[in-house]
Amino acid sequence: MRSENRAPKSLTLAAIGGLLFLHLPIALIFLYAFTTEERTYQFPPPGLTLKWFAVAWNRADIWPPLYLSLRVAAVATLMALVLGTLCAAAMARARFFGRDQLSLLIILPIALPGVITGMSLRSAFSLMDIPFSTLTIILGHATFCIVIVYNNAVARFRRLSGSITEASADLGANSFQTFRYILLPNLGSALLAGAMLAFALSFDEVIVTTFTAGQQSTLPIWMLQELVRPRQRPVTNVVAIVVFATTFIPILIAYYLTRGGSETAGGGK
Amino acid sequence: MTAAVEFQTVSRHFGPVRAVDEVNLSVAEGTFFAMLGPSGSGKTTCLRLISGFEKPTHGAIRIFGQDVSNTPPNRRNVNTVFQDYALFPHLNVRENVGYGLMVKGVGRATRNAKADEMLALVKLDGFGERKPGQLSGGQRQRVALARALVNEPRVLLLDEPLGALDLKLREAMQDELKALQKRLGITFVFVTHDQGEALSMADRLAVFNHGKIAQIGTPEEIYSRPRTHFVADFVGSSNVLPPDLVQRLGAPPTWASLRPEALRLTAAQGAVLSGAIIGLRYLGAGTRVTVAVAGAEIGVLVPSGAQLPEAGAEVGIAFDLADLHPMEEA
Amino acid sequence: MKSALLPERGPGDRLTAIFWRRPRVLLAVLIAPPLLWLGVVYIGSLAALLLQSFYSIDEFSGLVVREFTLKTYGELLRPANFDIIRRTLLMSASVTLASAVVAFPIAYYAARYATGRWKAVFYLGIMLPLWSSYLVKVYAWKLILAKEGIVTWVADSVGLGFLLDAALALPGVGGNSLSTSFLGTFLVFVYVWLPYMILPMQAALERVPKSLLEASADLGASSAQTFRTVILPLAMPGVIAGSIFTFSLTMGDYIIPQIVGTSARFIGLAVYQLQGTAGNLPLAAAFAVVPIIIMLIYLSLAKRAGAFDAL
Fold it and tell me: Are residues B113 and B203 in the same domain?
């Protein structure tokens, strides 16, 4: 019955076409980073050059946003890691009143449009007299990163045999020892994968950031400004490549960390 | 002597369900105690009450005379062999066995030495470096056993530990477990739904039904003198005779049990009990012949080699009146 | 012989005993920090936003009048504002529909036919665009759709330039170039949100047991019938789950229409401008409530259709 397992030609074509549709545009970003034309997006590029990489390297306005984005992503990821794991642990433990509402609450920050999350956080921050700063950017990012860590952690909790935590207690471990010696090693890769994805998400977030940022700009905000008012266009492409790589690598790591499990990371951005 | 485990009118309710219903129980130190019953009868919940994973809704549990109402599982000197073994997948066999010692602060050298000693005891020398995933079911079972025993528990709880093994291995492990228990002198509390296993291994056993203990006693007592219809049915497959039939046999009119192997087939004429054969089932060591007698069905175990009548034939049943055991309940 | 009970060692054991005696305490400890943030701060700020929408703005002073009124909601119905809502919903619906159509063959192939190495290729092939930078993706389309960009070049080189011109000449959706037309905005939306549709769809399709398809064929259904009566209904929860994302994301986005598209506004952009430069917070809030209400209805319907299991 081998023949039944072969896809119809039209389906194969449509599927491959779809994949190409998803990937070719990104390839263009790379191409345009080498063009000699800096005022328009002329295709095909009139000539190729490497000079934009050097120009980008020497542009003083790129480095602070890059550092800020890295810092924000790192701290927001850490916060999401703690909060998301706590949520997952609570959800894995028991059925309790409000459990369904909590699961809805966790996905709300990504289910609702970013403008709304951004705007309500902005008004909340001004209400609480928190000045817009790096801190407010981080808090905003952590809000929508929680669900990423949570999704990964909760899937792993589900897969772990419930009796291993009981076995640990049975053998004399207290709750903290069980967490340290049994849960953490078994959750580790799922948490790391969640953290990688959260990092990638935070690193290139722009919508919520525009609401929660003060004067500082993250790399995506810098890019947005360049998109609206372009200066040296190929430099934007170079930065785009950097952003792409910075998100691409953690995603690959996350994939390899959870590969083979039933819960490969990234299903629910 | 204080009992190793004692239940005083212990109940465990899950909402409206009474998983364990006013159970009184006393397990003497050093015995191999089995809890037998169908699934959902409350035997596993009882085990989890001893280990501390469940808390009684009512009643008190004492381990060696000490009330454990306020003692969490990690502080009870009781260890469990779990049904699915619950080995830690990220630790190797030696680390699994040494885990209980590690969390109690025993140094690595002592820990490893003791773990290896235990692995030798369960005949797994040299398996210390393997991960649980690389072991067979029987080997995992031994690791789980070693991991529990290394802590020198006062009571070892076993939750259907042989359920996942195939028949041959199961029988070998039954003998081994029994021998191990005799050698170590530790109290074993063993949960199973397999009556053969319970009868062959236990010093004493409790039969559970609907959250209550239907009968408690030695295997011999339970097998030959089932107290209730349920026990008679569940442990082996005794014939249960109604009071009027028992009276006709010349005994006081109560429900009574009669083991199939205590019966012989005779000629129909002159027999106290007689009827037509309505079924024959070959069992290997013998054949179970079902005879319809005055509204009841009576099973007779005919040993292999003896001559078998045809289905439908009229036969009589003979037995010793001493084998007719009155029961307390229907 | 050891005692039947082990001694309590340190605060870890003491806390463990408390958790064991009162499991709710542990639950509360676990849940309090996330609940404090999400349940109090986040929900609180959503509520504050909702409250703002019941205030109004004084037309002369431009100050917010903190009195309960439905006036601001009334303003949503003014033709200019209502147009924004209608346009946004129309765009969200068409993007969702188009995503579902484009996503299906990819999801179906990945779920049913891809094995081994190809499975990984498909998985990563969907995952990477999903997770790679949103801005980079939007930027890529600015390059593609520009007047001097690759689409025009390809169309001209294969002699189909007239088709492109015809499409751009369409009233309502066309424009000067693709990058300044609704058609362009639509394309970018579909591209950016497509992976969000593929993944849940694939997950749902993967859950269709093979035996079910064989049973259908065995009972005499043609492959078209099997597809229509077995596969499609079972894929529906996945489609709904995916549509939650495509719909919501399109509705709230304000970057894409700003970079690729006409000057006509969508809800996201209206909210952004109203709360920022225009300083009309009540109207911005009222606008923001529209997608919230639509999404809440959408989510509860989706939950009933079992879409959350496909997430």
Answer: yes
